[in-house]
From TrEMBL:
Pfam families: Amidase. InterPro entries: Amidase_dom, AS_sf, FAAH2. This is Fatty-acid amide hydrolase 2-B. It comes from Bactrocera dorsalis. The keyword Magnesium does not apply. The keyword GTP-binding does not apply. One of its GO terms (molecular function) is hydrolase activity. The gene is LOC105233930.
């Protein structure tokens, strides 16, 4: 462990324990969600159900796309999740999909949908993932006029499969935050409580999916950026095995081989049963490595679980709330008679999880900084800009500045120490992979607390390795929603598997969705009977 880094973690933990309750005390009590209820039954259908209706010629893409347009318009004034829509173009693409389905004989429809697995299916795109002819500012005033020239490769895989992008969603500046408060527009807020963040950096996708305004979305994750919004907004989110999805066309990006593993794109969705299909399409040519067509039997899976880190590392982290621990125990109790084996484990092998996580990110070559400067006094410039930010005079966002500053000071670690932790990562990979094997999964908190109040993420930042350590070691992880806590906020946990065993995560997600309901709905539906 690194003394100074851990001292900072301890200080922030104490501040968090003292300041955050006081902060909450002076805020008004949470009222009911302001998100309008869903009234259109089409918005409650999974991708699988939509495709089945298309094949039966009982639903048209134009009708579904229009239903999602209406829902986006209805909720966006509450959550502020949209950067820009492409409604008119999407309707044209939906009409072409309907025409293609209509002129295809019944006997040839299976082949058509086998070739175009998402034909006529609307989806939303995190702005940083790159959608052609759409804004590409990624929360930055310096990028305010940048338009994406081509689809990012993973986005293009969805489009090539017949998917119809309907909008780009908001991110924090450069994706450098656990909450989505960009420098370019209003902050994105949580559909369950407008005083709280939707998470980051895929906060727009989390909020849209949580509010029922997206059939599914594509997000990106280098340190929990898919899984935090999924936890905070009560939906499913998958961070794939390292290197499975292409990050070509994403911003920020770099060519460092480690970045190709740490930074991954994946689905955010209300429906756990859709994850396998969505991942198959997003992975493109790498889908064969996941062997998703070969089914997994729940009875063959071994379930390991832990409520947090062990020993001194656990003491220095914020402990998970009671409700998050209970969600893990409920899952274990349910799975106990369905899986091969359940076992609580120690996370002692992860004793340097924070050092490995922060060190891995700091050591990335050519990963862009928020403030690009050739000055020998870069740190001094950052401090000056952070001072301006306190007075709301900076052109940059607070959270991105602090994150950038942490990288500028090497994560408070010496280079030789970071190299030592990098070597330790390789040992952890092999040790943890052996423990899980081909049929083992770990149930582990995605984050120790549910949705944070806005402007409080800096206090909680020192728990980033709950999620980020699995980016650093390249293991797949799926967040699974498991209901609400006493304050009405979504809770849940992540399920982690060995590399290329993503389908184990999906199988557990399907089982728990069927048992516990999955998506946490902000406002009860008011669907009219047929």
């Amino acid at each position: 462990m690194e003394f100074f880094l851990r001292l900072l973690q301890l200080i922030f933990k104490i501040l968090y324990m003292i300041a955050y309750p006081l902060w909450c005390f002076f805020l008004p009590r949470k009222g009911p969600s302001t998100i309008p209820p869903i009234r259109d039954r089409l918005l409650t259908l999974s991708v699988g159900e939509v495709l089945e209706l298309y094949k039966q010629r009982k639903l048209k893409s134009t009708k579904l796309v229009k239903a999602y347009f209406d829902r986006v318009i209805e909720v966006n004034s509450h959550i502020h999740a949209v950067v820009e829509d492409r409604f008119n173009k999407a309707l044209e693409e939906a009409a072409r999909a309907d025409e293609l389905i209509a002129r295809t004989p019944d006997a040839e429809l299976p082949e058509l949908f086998n070739r175009l697995k998402l034909l006529g299916v609307p989806f939303t795109v995190k702005e940083s993932c790159g959608l052609k002819d759409m804004p590409f500012r990624v929360g930055s005033r310096q990028r305010a006029n940048i338009v994406c020239r081509a689809n990012g490769e993973t986005v293009n895989n969805l489009v090539a499969a017949g998917g119809i992008p309907i909008l780009v969603s908001i991110t924090p500046e450069y994706c450098f935050s656990m909450e989505t408060n960009p420098a370019t527009q209003k902050r994105c807020v949580n559909p369950h409580d407008s005083r709280r963040t939707a998470g980051g950096s895929s906060g727009g996708e989390g909020a849209l999916n949580g509010a029922g305004a997206s059939l599914f979305g594509i997000g990106s994750d280098i340190g929990g950026s898919i899984r935090y919004p999924s936890l905070f907004c009560g939906v499913f989110g998958h961070k794939p095995t390292g290197g499975i999805t292409s990050i070509e066309g994403h911003f920020p990006n770099c060519k460092d081989k480690d970045c190709l593993e740490y930074l991954q794109m994946g689905p955010i969705t209300r429906f756990g049963r859709d994850l396998s299909l969505l991942m198959e399409v997003m992975a493109g040519k790498n889908a064969k490595l996941l062997d998703l067509s070969t089914p997994v039997e729940t009875k063959d899976i071994r379930v390991f679980y832990a409520f947090g880190f062990s020993g001194l590392n656990g003491l220095l982290h914020r402990s998970p709330t009671k409700d998050i621990k209970v969600s893990i125990m409920l899952a274990v109790k349910f799975l106990k008679t369905r899986v091969l084996h359940t076992q609580k484990i120690s996370m002692s092998a992860f004793k340097n999880s924070l050092e490995m996580s922060i060190g891995g990110l700091v050591m990335l070559k050519d990963f862009p900084y928020l403030i690009n400067s050739s000055s020998p006094h870069k740190i001094r410039e950052h401090l000056a800009e952070m001072s301006k930010a306190v007075l709301t005079q900076s052109e940059y966002s607070n959270e991105a500045l602090y994150f950038d500053a942490l990288r500028r000071v090497n994560g408070c670690m010496r280079t030789e120490a970071m190299l030592r932790y990098k070597a330790e990562v390789e040992v952890l990979k092999s040790t943890f992979a052996r423990m899980l094997g081909d049929y083992g999964v770990l149930l582990f908190p995605t984050f120790p607390v549910p949705a944070l109040h806005t402007d409080s993420s800096l206090l909680a930042l020192w728990n980033v390795d709950y999620a980020m350590i699995f980016n650093i070691i390249g293991f797949p992880a799926t967040h699974i929603p498991m209901g609400r806590d006493g304050d009405g906020l979504p809770v849940g946990f992540q399920v982690v598997a060995a590399p290329y065993r993503d389908k184990l995560c999906f199988q557990i997600a399907r089982e728990l969705e069927a048992a516990f309901g999955g998506w946490v709905i902000p406002t009860p539906h008011e669907i009219q009977p047929l």
